[in-house]
Amino acid sequence: KIVPAIEEALKGLKDSPNDSNLLLLLGDLYLKINKGTAAIKYLQKAAEQYCNDGFLLKGIAVYKRVHRIDPGLIEVRLRLADLYARQGLVSEARFEILAAIEQYEKAGQVREMIDLYHRLLEIDPSSIEVRSELAALYDREGMTSEATSLYLAISQQCLQRNEAAQALPFLEKARKLNPQNAAVQWKMLWVYLELDETEKARSILEDFINTSISDLEILGLIIKNHTTAASMDKMHELINCVLDSSSHREPYYVLKGELFLHSGELENALNEFMLAIFEQGER
């Protein structure tokens, strides 16, 4: 006598609209007569009420039942992800969000995909994999500035782990997207120096000098993020190597002066800036 039972339960729900047991019962009863839409409605209400009452595990269990009834409900996946995250179950939360991203991708809902990648980063901020996937999505959608910034951030994360070789592919992607970006060029320069790729470092240095002679503010920021005695020595060696074969020396003198200035070697900095002045005077 399922239909009369549903009618009685609905009467009871009028007096106690937040009774999670009644809501769950209604969901079960509607399932028995194959009314899936009504069943899902009351099961979701029951799950949410369990959560409101502090019974998160019960809420998760009911939401999982709803998901089994209709796996296509993205909002259920995302609610499960939230509950898993609150329970500290990072891998489970990640799984649900990735599954939702896949569903959004099939539907062509890019904005929603981007939002979910940001939610993944809230759960696991250090995930290079998630950052890389988000950067690739930005790239695919023509969001060049966002993709470049994210590839730069990933490369910096690799460098902080002393993984210069792992940083390089992300910098190459950023440079391909934005060849004139000074921050990308300089970070690649430092990575090549760390990897003893002198010829590649020299090529980037010459490209940068030829296009961004006066961009010393960006240069100063990057130097501060990569100041070690070893890397400074390599940088000076590289500049000296280029100076030997360059007919336009002024920007290299200025660059050496900035390096000395940053490391507190004021007399050496003064000498380099004077050489740059003499170079200008000769012209």
Describe the protein in words.
This protein has 283 residues and is mainly α. The protein contains 16 helices and no strands. Helix 5 packs antiparallel against helix 6 and helix 11 runs antiparallel to helix 12. The protein is rod-shaped and about 105 Å long.
Quick take:
The chain is an all-alpha fold and 283 residues long. 82% of the residues lie in helices and 0% in strands.
**Total E-strand runs:** 0
Which percent range describes the beta-strand content?
under 5%
Given helix and strand content, the structural type is mainly alpha
The number of helical elements comes to 16
- Element pattern in H and E: HHHHHHHHHHHHHHHH
Measure the end-to-end span: 102 Å
- Largest sheet geometry: none
What spatial form do the alpha-carbon principal axes imply?
rod-shaped
Low-confidence stretches: none
Overall helicity: over 70%
Q: Oligomerization state of this entry?
A: single chain
What's the alpha carbon Rg, rounded to whole Å?
30 Å
> What is the residue-averaged pLDDT?
87
